[in-house]
Design goal:
Oligomer: single chain
Order of helices and strands: EEEEEHHHHHHHHEEHEEHEEE
Distance between the termini: 23 Å
Helix content: 40-55%
Number of strands: 12
Structural class: alpha+beta
Strand order of the largest sheet: 8-10-11-12
Length: about 350
């Protein structure tokens, strides 16, 4: 096991441990990089979280993010060359520490009483360790450098695999605090949404170049097969196929819970296709369909129905591809997905890595 010593400042009690301002915290990681133990020792003194005063964090967090647009991602995924592949790795090498530093600084905007929650401290330290480790990685100049870098990134990602669960526990405890704690309404939910959204973006900017590297190596070895994918993006993602796949998964859950499931009927432009990450779209649809089926059953019971009414999902293919899912008695949900890029830059298009929607698979 590896041991890391970090100077932290805090004042909180949890499960018999006391974490106080200016303490030293011993973080123990397994060989695989998982956080397995934490121990606090030291003397109390009054101060803010000194862990947030890291000058490197402030330096990197001040750098503007370099967005990976869909147009940029697809251009580098076509006609792969060694130079193209290495340049995508160099982008991740430069961008990842910046985004991790911004996550660390997000904690600085929370009320102090929230930041010192032991669960929040555990997440914060996990990201600080990741930031410092990736910041110190040597530059990428060759394909071998790139392979080594992404092997290391996977180890770092493994260390972060449980942070969403840990963060959710910290947020839940913080929501139990009295109004005098100074927490604004919606502040914690906004923090959680931003945290997950940024996590999604980082996953896309890492997985896309990694996929391109694997593809390039297959092409050089003569083992590449025809594929509809450019990196992690499907060139012809058909919403109808994704809707039907999501509907089957939700129906199985619904039948287990209620004994039966509403039929999902897809109407409209069934042959529509978009450039998208199918797993992102499926995750979104699964969550929406779960809500929709639950409301369908509740609405049906209020109406005295013995069988739930079918759910009609409409696909409208125009300038954008729109998926509309009705919710009985309460209007409907609407999803919009951009077509292949036309050179424009639009912050609201889901083609941007930062606003993806990849499932948190932790």
């Amino acid at each position: 096991k590896l041991q890391f010593l970090y100077l932290i400042g805090s004042a909180a009690r949890h499960d018999g441990y006391t974490c106080v301002a200016g303490d030293k915290m011993t973080i123990r990681l397994s060989a695989a990089g998982a956080l397995v133990a934490a121990r606090w020792t030291g003397a109390r003194r009054k101060s803010s979280l000194s862990i947030l005063d890291n000058p490197h964090v402030a330096q990197y967090a001040a750098v503007p993010k370099s967005e990976m647009t869909l147009k940029y991602a697809l251009e580098f995924a076509e006609n792969l060359t060694e130079k193209k592949v290495i340049s995508t790795g160099q982008y991740v090498h430069k961008e990842l520490p910046v985004r991790l530093a911004k996550v660390v600084q997000m904690f600085n905007h929370l009320p102090y009483i929230v930041t010192v929650n032991p669960y929040m401290i555990e997440v914060l330290l996990c990201y600080l360790i990741s930031f410092n480790a990736l910041r110190e990685r040597p530059p990428i100049r060759t394909l071998d450098d790139m392979r080594d870098y992404f092997t290391f990134v996977l180890r770092v990602a493994h260390m972060q695999r449980d942070v969403l669960t840990t963060l959710a526990k910290g947020i839940a405890e913080a929501k139990q605090l009295p109004a005098s704690a100074g927490i604004q309404e919606g502040e914690l939910d906004a923090f959680m949404d931003s945290f997950v959204s940024q996590r999604i973006g980082r996953r896309v900017i890492v997985s896309h170049p990694q996929t391109l590297l694997c593809r390039y190596e297959e092409e050089q070895a003569g083992r590449a097969k025809d594929s509809d994918f450019l990196g992690v993006f499907a060139k012809h993602c058909r919403p109808k196929d994704v809707i039907e796949s999501a509907a089957r998964k939700v129906a199985a859950l619904c039948e287990k819970r209620f004994g039966s499931a509403p039929e999902v009927v897809v109407s409209g432009d069934a042959d529509a296709s978009v450039v998208y990450i199918p797993s992102h779209l499926e995750y979104i649809l699964v969550e929406i369909l779960k809500n929709c089926m639950r409301h369908t059953f509740k609405w049906g019971m209020c109406q005295g129905r013995k069988q739930p009414a079918p759910i009609e999902v409409t696909i409208c293919d125009g300038r954008d591809c729109v998926i509309r899912i009705p919710r009985p008695g309460r209007g409907g949900f609407s999803l919009e997905s951009a077509h292949a890029p036309d050179g424009e830059s639009d912050n609201h298009r889901p083609g941007r890595a930062e606003n993806g929607g990849v499932p948190p698979r932790d």
